[in-house]
Amino acid sequence: MKSSSWFLGIDLGTGSCKTAAVGEDGKVLGFGVGEYSGAEAQDRWQEQDPRELLKAAIASVGQAVARAGASPESCGGMSIGGALHSVMAVDGHGEPLTGVITWADGRAVEPARAVAGTPAGDNLYRETGCPAHGMYPLYKIIWLRENRPEVFQHARRYVSAKEYVGFRLTGTWQVDYALAAGSGFLNTDTLKWSDPAIDLAGIRKDQLSPLAAPVALLGKLQPAIAARMGVPANTPVVMGSSDAVNSSIGAGAVAPTQATLMVGTSGALRVVSPRPVLDPKARSWCYAIDERHWLVGGAINNGGVALSWLRDCLNQAHGGPPLTFEDVLALASRASAGSRGLVCLPFFAGERSPNWNLNARAAFFGMSLEHELRHVARALLEGIGFRFKNLVEVLREIGLDVKQIVASGGFIKSELWLQVMADVLGRDLNVPAWGETSALAAAFWAALAAGCAGSMEDIRSWVRHGHACRPVPENTAVYERVYPLYTKLYQAAAGSFDDIVRLQNDLAAAKDERGKRNGTR
Ligand code: ADP
Question: What is the DSSP string of 340-357?
């Protein structure tokens, strides 16, 4: 290995593809971003165009390489970190038969509900570490079988967006353990495909990709793509892991006493554990990383997406230049802790952990004539914080007593948001100096595969620590008062979620019908 080797880490996320070029000492040499147009959203559907993802990935690598200015010949390899829970059907030539059905797609509610709480569902949780929830590709494939038989019959394979991009880069189908685990089809103990899950989906084992460890070689980069990226043909592409794993280890959280608290479009609280950890109540998930590490935690649907909702609503009524996230956060900063008694249940996009109810819906409770937009903005951040408080409690109950919390994801750009989170949790939040932890860790897997590091834990030497955000005791005291009320409100609202969703669906269907009659939708 040449002393000046550098590596590429590709973070194929939900909103964009980001790539870091990183030296073997962990120094970031260059960074690139390839944007995609947002997911095509229709009712509960969220699909992305896989070709657009591929294009964005190649563009982001090209940018990172150009900005790094390092010798292309010294590129020691790359890996892709893929978003969990996406699935698409491809034909025998690898051509897409569907779009990339993302984690946020809610069409598979019913197939998952049919299994939740049954002995088969309990058995699947024990086997795969995945609660019965429609985000898992297992249930999306059942949906395709029941609703798109022409796709189901012609599908040669079911793959994630990462596998599709990896195939286009190298000509090889293979999947790492973490991505496989996030499909709902992997046995977390044996690291083999789960027969009960495959039987439930009604597919064949050879419709899923061969499994491989994160440091295994996926293949060598195809010449045409290498030319577009600005690196030599045959550059090694190693398996790498999922964005969830990468976001955690790239923040330096590799021990079971450390958790990563991530708020990006969605959110998650995750711990790397040396053994699989399951919850008797199936509130958390457990995904294999490699033969010695598992990622345990809970994910929430409503992270940054809730802030996007508020920003977009405000922009509809705003004449000037569009408001940004920073503007909405500045608005929230003008309200004090507790948002003057306004409590937000932030379920704009349904709920995942801990109650796994895709039909959960958002509510603001306690609104009075005293309340202003700034309270709404702050209550929303606080409502997201309370979900994390709940997740910390769940992890403690299942034996993961977290001592240190590291923040990651887009929210770390805001001191206010970090402060609200630290105050709600009553805990310090450590903030890495460089926020793109997923891309950093994706580069690390390539370095590990090339022999530049000895173990996953060595990523600690790559992580530069920034500052710690400490809770303000008076604010924490306010939140200790609000949290029980928040929990009570959730319980009271939970009984009405199905009714409200039925109403919403009926009204949307009636509007569609009228639109069709009038030639508009
Ligand atoms: P993804 O989950 O798509 O990879 P990121 O981790 O980049 O996304 O996070 C995107 C989220 O970060 C946005 O939805 C938004 O809520 C939040 N965000 C973006 N810009 C800022 C900012 N300046 N301050 C705080 N939060 C921000």
Answer: GG-EEE--BTB--TTT--
0.85 exceeded by the pTM?
A: yes
The amino acid occupying position 81 is G
Give bridge partners of residue 96 from the DSSP assignment. Answer: 90
State the DSSP code for 221. Answer: P
Q: What is the mean pLDDT of residues 42-64?
A: 93
Q: What number is the average pLDDT over the span 184-213?
A: 98
Does the pLDDT of residue 521 top 60, yes or no?
A: no
Flag whether pLDDT at 483 surpasses 50.
yes
Which pLDDT value is given to residue 39? 62
Centre of ligand 1 from the C-alpha of residue 311, in Å: 12
CA 372 – ligand 1 centroid, Å = 24
- Measured from the CB, is residue 417 less than 6 Å from ligand 1? yes
pLDDT of residue 358: 82
**Ligand 1: distance of its center to the CA of 35 in Å?**
14
Alpha carbon 224 to chain centroid, angstroms = 30
Strand partners, 344: 364
3-state SS, one letter per residue, for 65-76: HHHHCCCHHHEE
pLDDT of residue 137: 98
Closest ligand 1 atom to residue 408 Cα is 6
Amino acid letter, 362:
A
User: SS3 for 437-472, per residue?
Assistant: HHHHHHHHHHHHHCCCCCCHHHHHHHCCEEEEECCC
